[in-house]
Design brief:
By secondary structure, the protein is α/β, with parallel strands linked by helices. The protein contains 29 helices and 20 strands. Bound molecules: glutamine and zinc ion. Zinc ion binds next to loops.
Amino acid sequence: MTAKPAAAAARATVYGYPRQGQHRELKKAIEGYWKGRVTADALMETARGLRRANWQQLVDAGVHEVPTGDFSYYDHVLDTSVMVGAVPGRHRAAVEADALDGYFAMARGTQDVAPLEMTKWFDTNYHYLVPELGPDTVFAADSAKQVGELKEALALGHTPRPVLVGPVTYLLLAKPAPGVAADFEPLTLLDRLLPVYAEILGDLRAAGAEWVQLDEPALVQDRTPAELNAAERAYRDLGALTDRPKLLVASYFDQLGEALPVLAKAPVDGLALDFTEAAAGNLDALAAAGGLPGKRLVAGVVNGRNIWINDYEKSLATLGTLLGLADRVDVAASCSLLHVPLDAAVERDIDPQILRWLAFAKQKTAEIATLARGLAQGTHTIAAELAANRADLASRAGSAITHDPAVRARSAAVTDADGRRSAPYAKRATAQRAHLGLPLLPTTTIGSFPQTGELRAARADLRAGRIDTAGYEERIRNEIREVIAFQEKAGIDVLVHGEPERNDMVQYFAEQLTGYLATQHGWVQSYGTRYVRPPVLAGDISRPEPMTVRWTTYAQSCTDRPVKGMLTGPVTMLAWSFVRDDQPLGDTARQVALALRDEVADLEAAGTSVIQVDEPALRETLPLRAAGHAAYLAWATEAFRLTTSGVRDRTQIHTHMCYAEFGDIVQAIDDLDADVISLEAARSHMQVARELAAHGYPREAGPGVYDIHSPRVPSAEEAASLLRKGLDAIPAERLWVNPDCGLKTRAWPETRASLENLVAAARTVRAEIPSA
Ligand code: GLN
Ligand code: ZN
C-alpha cells in the first residue's frame, strides 16, 4: 500500500470503553456507596483509577486519540441531561442538596420520587434513562464532568477527544415530561439547546480539546424531512461558532442514509461512520455524496458490538477505498466498545481454538491499532498479524464446530409444512377445549415464581461445591412442590413449575445446547450497575438431550391440573446472545428453532398439554430502519413456527411478549399462529387488547392484569375492572387472565396476595358473563 498523505496520517481511536473494570470495581464501588459502605471520595477515586487504567490500556495497545467523557456512574444519556441542565422538577431538590445523590435519585428513584424512565439504547441491550422535556424546559450548561475528565487525560499526557451525545440525538431520545402534552416534540427545543452545546464546546476548547465528538446515532434511523432539517441546522450553527474545537460527528449501528449528504455538507471537521456489514450502504452513499473533501473520516471497520475477530483483509480493502474519499482516514470500532466485554484473554474455560476467534474490547483495540498501522505504514508492517488473522479466520471457517453436517442437513431439509400446524386454529381450539377442560377466562402465570435468596444460595452452594448436584436438585424439587401447591390452593387453572432451576431464561438453555458458549467474565453493561453475560452463539446448534422435560414432568406429577412447559423462543435466544457473524441471522435462528422443536416434541411426548415459548425480544429486535423489517419478521416468525408447529392439535401452544409496544407488529404476532398469547398490558390499561381487536386477532390472548414491575398488590376489583376492559375487546371464549410477566423479581408475600386477587377477579367476571 502506498503511503498517500491521508494514509500516512491514519490514526487509531475508539468512541468509548467498558466502564466497570476487569474486576467489576465500579459496580462494587457504586453499590457500596448506595449501601453507605463506600464514601463519595472513595467512589470518585475508584472511578478516576478506572479511567486512568482504561486510557493507559488504550494507549499501550496503540490507540492515538483516547475518548473522554464516555465514563459514567450510571448512564451517558443521564450524564447528558445533567450536562444540559435538564433535571426534572421532582429531582431538583435532591440534585441541589448533593449532586451525586441527586444523580442516583434520577437514575433509581427514591422512596418518594420516581426515577427517569429507562429504555433500550437503539437495538442494543444497553438501557438509557429517557430525558424528560417540555415547553418549559430551561437548559443550562454544566460542563464540569466533561471538562474534568478531559483535564484528567491531558494531565496524564494523552491526546483526548471528549465524546458527547449530540444535540439532535439527545432531543430525539427524549420524551414529554409527566404532565406535558403527549404530542409535545422535544426536537422543537433545538434552538434553546444549541447555545448550551456551544457553551460546552467553548469550555472544552478552553480546557485544551482539539477535537470533540458529537454522537448522532439517531440519524441512522428513518428520519422525517423536518428531523433531517434540524440536523442540518444544528451542525450549521455549531460549525459556525468561532473559537470552537474541531467537530467530529459520529454515527453508528446502521448506515446514515438520507442523513449522510446532510452531514457531509455540514461545516464540521469530520464524520465517523459505521462500515461494518450492517451499514454496508455507507460506502456507496459516501462516494455518491462526493466523499468528504477537506474532512476527516473515522472509519468504524471493527464491529464494536459483537465479539468476533475482524477480517483484516476485508477491512483494509474498505479503508483503501475510503482513502480516496476523505482528506484523512482514521480507524475505529463501529461504535463504543461499551457493548462488548473487556478482555477475552482472561477466559479460561473456552476451547483455545475458539478463543482465537474472539475479540473483546481489549482485542478489538489491538485490531484497530494494527489496521491503522497497516494503513499508515503499509501492509508489510503488519504481515505477521495478517498471516495470523488469516489463519484464525480459516480455522473458524473450516471448524467442525461451525459446520456440523447433521445440523446443516436438517436445516436445509426444512419445508414450509414444518412451520405449519396440521390444522387451522378453529379445529385446534376445539380439540384443546375438549382435552384441557378449562373454565371460561382461564387463569395462568407467565412462568417464573420468586427467585428467592434460598434459590440463589443453592446455586452458589452448588458452584462452590458445598452441595452436590443431587442436593441441589432436591432443593429445586422442593421449590417446585411448593409452587405447585400454592397455585392449586389459589385456584389457578394452568400451572407452571416456577422456573427455579433457571439462572437466566437464555443462559439456562445456552448452557445445554451444543454450539453455544458461556463466558466466565464476559460482562456487559445492561443498565446502571446491572451487567449481563450474554452467551455466544459460536457454532452450529444442536440439543444433545432434553433440557426442561424432567422439571416439567416432576411438576406435573405433583398435580392433576395441567402444567405448562416453558421454553425461551429462538428469536429471544438470539437477541440476548452474541450472534454468529459468519452466516445470516435467519440461519442461526433456524438451527436454534430446530433444537427447541425437539424439546417441544419431548415435552408433548412426556404428557405436557400446554407449552409456552417466550418471545419477549421479538419487538425489540426489529431492525432500526423500516426497510429491514419485512426480512427480519420473515425469519423470526419462521423460527417461532418451526419451534412450535410439530405438535398435535390438542396441544396448546402459548407465547409471551413484554417490554414493548406491540401495535406495529400485530401482524407478525398473528403470523406466529400461537394458540394463546400473553402480553404486558396492565400499565397501559389494556391498550394491547384494543390493538389486537382492531387487527382482528383471531386467537386467544391474555393481556396482563397485574403489573409485576412493582411490589404493589392490585386489588381484586382493580384486576376485575382491567378484565372487563379486556372483555370489551376480546370475547370471553378467547380471553385469558394472567400477570404482565414472570414473577421472578417479586417477593412471595405480594406474589401470593396478587395472584389470589387475580383468581378472585376472574371468578367475579366469569359470574357476570351470561352464558357462563
Ligand atoms: N417465562 C419467563 C418468566 O416468567 C418470561 C420472562 C420474560 O418475558 N422476560 O420469567
Ligand atoms: Zn415478560
